[in-house]
Structure formats: C-alpha cells, structure tokens
Amino acid sequence: MAYDPNNIFARILRGEIPCTKVFENEHVLAFRDINPQAPLHVLVIPKGAYVSMDDFAAKASPEEITAFVRAIGQVARQEGVVETGYRILANHGRDAHQEVPHLHVHIFGKRPLGRMLAKD
Ligand code: AMP
Fold first, then answer.
1. Does residue 119 carry a pLDDT above 80?
2. Domain 8-109 adopts which CATH fold?
C-alpha cells in the first residue's frame, strides 16, 4: 500500500490539524487520541512516512526504530502508568481495522483493561 500524504496524521505532522501533544522529538510525535478508549489513550507516531508497522519494520532506519520504541517508554513513564500497567497496540490492515494509514501505536491505561482480545 502506497503512503497517502493526505492522511490525517500526516496533516497533524504538518501542523494543518491541531493535536494535544504529549511528546515530540526529531523522529516521533505523541498526542492524545481524539476518541479515547481509556482514561489514558495516547497515539505515538513516527515522523517518517510509514503506512503501518509492516512498512516501518521493513524500511525504517535503526535510529528511527530506536527513537520510536524509546518514545513509547518515555510517554508511559511521563503519563504515570508504569506502576499500574498499560497496553500498547498497533493495528495493521483490514483484519485489525486500521483506520489511519500512518503507523501509530496506541497506549492505553489508567483503568483495568480487560482481556487481550474480544472473542468476536
Ligand atoms: P486505528 O483504528 O488503529 O487506525 O486507530 C485510529 C485512531 O486515530 C482512533 O483511535 C481515532 O480515534 C484516532 N484519531 C483519528 N483522528 C484523530 C485526530 N485528529 N486526533 C487524534 N486522534 C485521532
């Protein structure tokens, strides 16, 4: 799947759409989900043009991958959920219901999160 430069997260990265930023560095932006599924629901995205984890895992540089993983840890620490626990999730493609075609990792927390997957 080719990267669509007009997807909503690309537009957030270009500053065309606002977001509630919680973390940013050279390679990564993290912001609050507009429709939170838990009291803590943050999206962590690479600044590079990657459709999904599949694309990122295949093509991102070691520096980008390191920055992305470290940013996830940093956001969880700064949001105060390391002790209580949190869940990270990245949807790729149709079966996972990926809505936005720019890689994003969801971080959920600040409530009991139930079992890993729904049965249906
Ligand atoms: P996914 O199904 O993994 O692609 O999730 C996309 C997520 O992006 C959903 O949780 C949406 O609520 C969220 N989202 C969509 N538009 C925005 C936006 N403008 N700002 C913040 N989050 C958004």
1. no
2. HIT family, subunit A (3.30.428)
